[in-house]
Amino acid sequence: MASLKAAFVALVTLGAALSSPAPRLAMAQVSPDQLDEKMANDPAPWTVPGKWGPRGNWGRWGEQDKRGMLNFITPEMIVQAAGLVKQGKVYPLGEEMHGDLPRFITPSRFGVQVVIENDGYDRVTQPGQFDPKRNQGAASYTIMHNHVGTHLDTFAHIYRENSLFNNMPPPRPAGTVHGDAASVKFMVARGVLLDVAKYKGMDPLPSNYWITVDDLKNTAKAQNVEIKKGDVLLVRTGWRKMWDQPGADGRADPAHTKYLQPEPGVGPDALSFLNEMEIVAIGADNAAVEWNFPLQPGYTRRAFGGFQGLPMHVDFIWNRGAYIIEILNLDDLAKDQAYEFLFVVAPLLLRGGIGVPVNPIAIR
Amino acid sequence: MASLKAAFVALVTLGAALSSPAPRLAMAQVSPDQLDEKMANDPAPWTVPGKWGPRGNWGRWGEQDKRGMLNFITPEMIVQAAGLVKQGKVYPLGEEMHGDLPRFITPSRFGVQVVIENDGYDRVTQPGQFDPKRNQGAASYTIMHNHVGTHLDTFAHIYRENSLFNNMPPPRPAGTVHGDAASVKFMVARGVLLDVAKYKGMDPLPSNYWITVDDLKNTAKAQNVEIKKGDVLLVRTGWRKMWDQPGADGRADPAHTKYLQPEPGVGPDALSFLNEMEIVAIGADNAAVEWNFPLQPGYTRRAFGGFQGLPMHVDFIWNRGAYIIEILNLDDLAKDQAYEFLFVVAPLLLRGGIGVPVNPIAIR
Amino acid sequence: MASLKAAFVALVTLGAALSSPAPRLAMAQVSPDQLDEKMANDPAPWTVPGKWGPRGNWGRWGEQDKRGMLNFITPEMIVQAAGLVKQGKVYPLGEEMHGDLPRFITPSRFGVQVVIENDGYDRVTQPGQFDPKRNQGAASYTIMHNHVGTHLDTFAHIYRENSLFNNMPPPRPAGTVHGDAASVKFMVARGVLLDVAKYKGMDPLPSNYWITVDDLKNTAKAQNVEIKKGDVLLVRTGWRKMWDQPGADGRADPAHTKYLQPEPGVGPDALSFLNEMEIVAIGADNAAVEWNFPLQPGYTRRAFGGFQGLPMHVDFIWNRGAYIIEILNLDDLAKDQAYEFLFVVAPLLLRGGIGVPVNPIAIR
Amino acid sequence: MASLKAAFVALVTLGAALSSPAPRLAMAQVSPDQLDEKMANDPAPWTVPGKWGPRGNWGRWGEQDKRGMLNFITPEMIVQAAGLVKQGKVYPLGEEMHGDLPRFITPSRFGVQVVIENDGYDRVTQPGQFDPKRNQGAASYTIMHNHVGTHLDTFAHIYRENSLFNNMPPPRPAGTVHGDAASVKFMVARGVLLDVAKYKGMDPLPSNYWITVDDLKNTAKAQNVEIKKGDVLLVRTGWRKMWDQPGADGRADPAHTKYLQPEPGVGPDALSFLNEMEIVAIGADNAAVEWNFPLQPGYTRRAFGGFQGLPMHVDFIWNRGAYIIEILNLDDLAKDQAYEFLFVVAPLLLRGGIGVPVNPIAIR
């Protein structure tokens, strides 16, 4: 562990050296494993009885509910969010999808494949001649893992004791009608960008950086934006650009080694705040939003009694019926310092889709 | 042809008999083939020189432009469209996607397949016992034709003389970067629903019904909604429900015979009006938006000198750089008489995707 | 029906005129619908009680058996079949697999798609320069319908009363372990080619030609080859070449209209002979081996009390546990007059594969 | 490196302790990295000029040849191989294909997915009642990486200087007609099993064990079987069973950690012998046949001047036009001490398929 800590310090130092303005932090940063250790005896949120049923938000919107925290957003909140549209500027936050899009299914090459149909015929009669009464057509197929590129995790992605959120049955290869992409229908909300990388003066944040709840609050404050109940929070770590970093030999790195290091992410100390604020969804420009993903080799997580899964995934998805959006492209929003906006996710209504690639839209 | 006309009259009569209130039309309806014949000598819009280049809107936004009519929508128009959000009500207009979703690739069964990953392990140690430190996870793949269910046709779908809109190169199985779904980025606009089925008092409109430009204008008038420049028009034919109609033997019909009849659609007499109004996209709740799809057996189209393709597809996609959205679910909008709204399409940014399934969102 | 008969006579005449040597038949051929009518009162083989269980070969090799007639082939028969290898000549009988391979899932374009992985990197340092310590690699994916090109129908393909052959459960999207390609393991047998097209002097046999049991026997006799118990019979109709026939306008026909006519095939009068001879598998160079596929529009089959399915499929697959191999390439065998050989099918052991594309090998 | 050597010795010792009879070796085994070092100055076979053209077998069968070493097998050799069939016993050597089949694309879950078509209709009118004139049908799709389970590497898999074997062009996403599965057509040969695991008395051979050329020769001698020119050699390492080994916690290991260690394999000292013997193809029950796959972390290969690729892959596939077959199931052959047999590979003729899953058949 000693060597890991050393490496972290080195990285922080490097990050600080590379990043431009006043590095407000670094020295003050407690090491991630100390933060993890500190929470070792905290009870996991999902072990605390819920107000409406056995867990967090189970039963809150009835036993048949499939949309979870999306029910928290009232028509009034939607009207207010639409009121944020003042400049008529639109930001597509989804990554372009192709065979080598950012993903975390290492080192599989199976991202998205678009197969163009071999049309089989060219209506041209002679080379260079065309029949004015005809034209050509083409079509395509797509084969994609549903958790590559910018994507939404649905309730079926994480489950415990053979139940999904709200006591729904687990997914099956056919006939799944709970916890899938089709159940989401849509997400229209107020969106807030928290550019933690900018606030911390490290862009990207260092590998394995634990974003604390104070980092989130202080970033909002520095940005002069208020976090409100029912918001969708988008956290910027700056990690996105790591996908295309060259390898150790300076050449293009098809294995994306740098990206696939333990990423900076939101630590579990933020969970109770996010719960209090009734956050509907959290997204980030990294692979899993949360801290310690992928797990450092040889590391055992200590928070919540040494819980071995991803705590934010379990709390958001299974316990609270909230959503996680991964691998967002937040750079244009950050550049424009666009910190609040109307946020729209229009997922493909994949029946049985456990997660779904999306192209979220921010409008302001 | 006599028998086809007879069948049409019979269908119209039947439609009138089945539909509820005042059937405002029927008797007055000119037969589709007369309308088609009437336009036989009209020049096709794409044979008329364009103002900015060799065709319609070619060159209008520069030689490198890949978004066509989406450039027509100004920030001001977006702000105004967002101003239509007054009730905070959201309508997802995409069909649920599964193996038997509405489509027009007859009689292929290949719609969308969601394959759930065989997780391969159950972290449960004993049946009925669970390890509190662990949880289960699942994921899925999707394999889909890009022109099934609710989908957007992109510029690469229809081309002539080996060129796409704006003189871009035709699609290839790899490396396509023009005219694909990724080039669309997003569509945010004012949306207008024209419920022609309701206006005509036939829901659905009869098989092969030619929706005239007057039908469109009169529907707008009857709905008390104005068609404005830069709008996205959504035309409701009522055809959607035909997908699930039983077969001749009264049993479930896996071949969807009734749906796959020639569908009602917008006739080519509307093209010049749609061009004048700078319509950015047109959508409908049928398979191809336009009239005479699928082509009646044995019928030869006569408009525009007997052009054998789909005229609206060629004019919108190839000539004007406008968009077509097919197989929309417009029933909830129609029920609420929601005739204008903020309209958002957030397509997956499929590089090389010729068309892309979408879940358009209407907000009002 | 009168016009269909007339068309058939015309086709036979045309076939006779086009084909080269002594047209031994034609005039004598009874029309297919007369042959069909003649069998209208015959009991279907699968309605007759079996010797070992409720149906044909059910229970013959035990209740758990998954390989059916393949059990009939003894080690001695395999040694004898290997003894047919005298010239050391090998014939691959599978069609090449690509996006437009012969198939009968009209007019879907989804045959086989091979997607080559975008390697993502070129280890070349400078254009034209190479690093001698490295090399490039590539890989591919395949997406295929399992009943396109040359393929084997497995027991799960045809079932009745919710049971497969030998009372096995029907296939499910996950967990299928009966009646699938993995259960076949291998087929090694004596193979016999019956070149009916050559024998009849019509190559191809006309559309919808009913190959009678006498055609099969007489072809064997004319070829001086004996049909033996446990054989795999390969029937050549000459239909294969129809796939690439141009359309009515003389241009390449992407819809493969001529191929997709009702094909010549083996009539149900052959079933009792094939059963007596314990034929393990039957294959052909057409889409379904048997007569009246695809069904002529408007025609109702009459044999076996008007059974509406494909009788050979039901008898072979469901009743007898025998196999059907479709869309074989038999032209090279025919050219060499290679009428008996060692026949090997080595199917991919797809668990849950209902049918499997194959490349059968004949060796002599 | 010291620790690696220590680990190796430990493993060898463990292997010796676990394996049953006389452990003929162990103590005598030189460590793999010493063997590797010893060959550091040997010229790579593919840098030596060929007899018929610039490289190994380039030009040997003409400039247009696509089948390479398969041309070496004469009809006489095929007749002799068929003469090995004396017992009529058949061995399918392909693994069953499903979502978690053995593969080496860690830790991707994308093996083979068989998607059963949702038939969409049940011809049963009432539950428990059936229509005797009808039956049910089902079909399936397969989506597979072409290098999972038992598979054949084709010429397009490994290339250098933008050329395949015999100076053919590299593969492309569409239109590939060289070096693909379709070009192989078939493989019919004498097959020889070399059960090195048995000979060495370690089953499996230890992780990263270097199978020397003497191991191959001595195994053949011990088995009393002669290696002949034009043979297909199948090398048994015993590694296959590692796929299903439980993880460190004794539970089922979905990551297949033990299998994915550096596997035992044939070292590059065997290449000149395999070339002299004109070996057409080599296969094994491990992931890459050859030694040091996957590469041990931190290890740099030293043979052939520190060549960084897989030397056997380059020599067999690129230099000699020979074939490699991976992840074979050789256990049944080994159990029967079946050391020579007729060997048939009938690959799907995938146009553009770089590699192809196969079910090779041994008959004796």
Topology:
The structure is a homotetramer of 364-residue chains.
Chain A: H1 2-18, H2 32-38, H3 75-82, E1 90-92, E2 112-116, E3 136-137, E4 140-145, E5 151-153, E6 158-159, H4 181-184, E7 187-194, H5 196-200, E8 210-211, H6 213-223, E9 232-235, E10 265-266, H7 271-276, E11 281-284, H8 303-306, H9 311-319, E12 323-326, H10 331-335, E13 340-345, E14 356-357, E15 361-363
Parallel strand pairs in A: 7-9, 8-10, 9-11, 11-12
Antiparallel strand pairs in A: 1-15, 2-4, 5-12, 5-14, 7-13, 13-15
List the secondary-structure elements of chain A in sequence, H or E. Answer: HHHEEEEEEHEHEHEEHEHHEHEEE
Largest sheet of chain A: 9 strands, mixed
Return the structural class of chain A: alpha/beta
Shape of chain A: globular
Name the helicity range of chain A: 10-25%
Number of helices of chain A: 10
What proportion of the residues of chain A form beta strands (DSSP E)?
15-25%
Major sheet: arrangement of strands of chain A: 1-15-13-7-9-11-12-5-14
Radius of gyration over C-alpha positions of chain A, nearest whole angstrom: 22 Å
* Biggest interface between chains: A-B, 86 and 87 residues
- Oligomerization state of this entry? homotetramer
Q: How many strands of chain A?
A: 15
Contiguous runs where pLDDT drops below 50 for at least 5 residues of chain A: 1-27
- End-to-end Cα distance of chain A, whole Å, is 46 Å
* Overall mean pLDDT of chain A: 88
